[in-house]
Amino acid sequence: MAIIKLNELRQMDEKNLENKLEELKRELIKMNAKVAIGTSIENPSKIRELKKTIARILTISKERTKQKPIEAKHKEVKKLKNIGGKQKG
After folding, report:
1. What is the pTM of this model?
2. Residues 36-76: tens digit of each pLDDT
3. Under a CB-based contact definition with an 8 Å cutoff, are residues 54 and 25 in contact?
4. I want to staple 34 with a disulfide (CB 3.0 to 4.6 A). Which of 39, 53, 67, 74 is the partner?
């Protein structure tokens, strides 16, 4: 698995991100199992790459879930400010 760039991850939809996350987690488990039994790995830095990519996916997913309520909250605050301004004047 090559390094997936942040822009590529942000362009993926939620379902693709979930699938990619599961795939990367499975690959990380396999690599960790190889390390645990003492088998040499071709590219030890790949474990680090996998962990970072998993973290990126989780971060993007968390940002997307938080973004929706924040936008709704801003709209409510603007409405309240407009209503409050009209009552004063």
Report:
1. 0.71
2. 999 988 898 999 999 999 999 999 999 988 876 666 666 66
3. yes
4. 39
